[in-house]
Amino acid sequence: MSQLQLIPEVQPGESFMSLAQRLAKANFHQTLQTFINRKGSHFDYRSNLNYYQEKNRWNSEIVNILKAQNYENVDNLTLNQFDGLLFGGSSTLLQRRQHYYQSKVKFCPHCVMEANYHRLVWDVSMVGVCLRHDCFLIENCNGCNRVIRMNDLIGGGCICGVNYADICEGEKPNEDILSAQRIIQGFIADEINEVVTEEGITLTGKEYFNGLDLLSKLLDGLPFANMKFADFTVTLGEANYSLIRGDKRNLLMIIYLSTVAHHLLMSPNKNFAAVINEVEINRSSNRQMRRKRELFDKIICLGTFAAHKKIYIDFHNTVNLEFARMRYILQPEEFRFCSLLAARKILKCDDNILKKLGESGVLEFMSRKVGRRKLTLVEIESVEKYAKVREEFITSIEVAKWLGVPGSIIRKLSDLKLLLIEHGPGKDVFGRRLFHPSAINRLLKELEELCVKEISDSDQSNWVPFDFKLLKEMHYHSNFASVLKAVISGNIRCCCTTEVRRFADVKLSRAELMNYIGSKKTNDKRKGVYKCKL
């Protein structure tokens, strides 16, 4: 295309399609279709193509026209620049339908009166208020209720005769809506980099919009009549964030959802418990319950939702305790129980671990059948007590490093009952051995009490350290456990000069140790076991 005579300047914050439409009309073309001389569906030239897609032929041809007229930085006029902030990367088809206007447009009549062009930020779905003029954006003609198209907005009015700049101002947004819009538009305009919640958690732009997305999905399908926790009301059916069955959303619903999600994210102590009650207890949502629970799992696992996690756990504890007080279902002495969910969160484990703890007698369970449902609760005191003890448990490898022996020796000592275990083979259904530090200290204390406290310098040569490597040179490695057993039974004398903190701090009588090893050799020779040299 040759150089045009009238080239309008790019206005601050102007959108890609707005510039293209103004360029066409400035050069006396009625529509973009005649401007680029392409025949096709009327929907194409009337639609909003501010999200650039290479496979869209209209996008490519309009970009070529703009570049031919020496327009620079065309990418700054498209919605693609917001993908990283809103989605953390490239967007999907559903995300674009949820977060961008791609056919109709919305606008502020005051801004259009001041300068007749379309602002790109208006095409972000969550932007529903003009903060400069404190008014709602408009997406339908107030004369005929038609949706507003880009070419009509740039043209100045609707086919019914209404001038868009003359539309009277309606209801003012309240402070709840304005406070949410300030944060949303502040991030989009790159005016703020982070925001701090009431609990003191700092959120970046990506974390903030990820939180809005998760909470909006949680509200999805809830009847608006049940959202009594909000400070403003709307006459709508149900929230439709997922656009299920292709249903359309209007601007008021988008504003409502983003505002409620914002306040749930920033101030969870106010209304998050009410959302949990509607979703999980009343089950008001018309979406699958499994997906809602998956959302709750995602929310309480994120570090930015620490306050939400606490509210979620406390709510289920409270609900189950209140439910336990209903009529004849439970006895008064059984009010000391909490839900399985609360127990899982406290112990940070799954249902299989809870079942094993119940089988081993660590936790006390109580079950009642209420109608067709089975209610299973866990004693709160036993859960909290075990949680404190469990934090101190150590593994076989940690015990081995403590005592200065291999892990295989620790397993042998536990099999011989010389070292008591809390969980593991031989005691319960757990496959991994876990020890409490008190068991190791008890064993070392027992050795210290058996030791002779005072030995003369001349007797030093008569004692050898109770060291694993030394015993391995004298005999095969599995003999260590049997030597320890002989020491505890009094067959081998021992001594120490300092506090016993590991096996090497103990010294054994050389003569009694050699006699014990010699008797073992004789027995092993009869069995045909190979011996290492002394």
UniProtKB/TrEMBL annotation:
Q: Tell me where in this chain the TniQ domain is found.
A: 7-137
**InterPro entries, alphabetized:** TniQ
| Pfam families named among the record's database cross-references | TniQ
Q: What is this protein called?
A: TniQ domain-containing protein
Q: Which organism is it from?
A: Paenibacillus anseongense
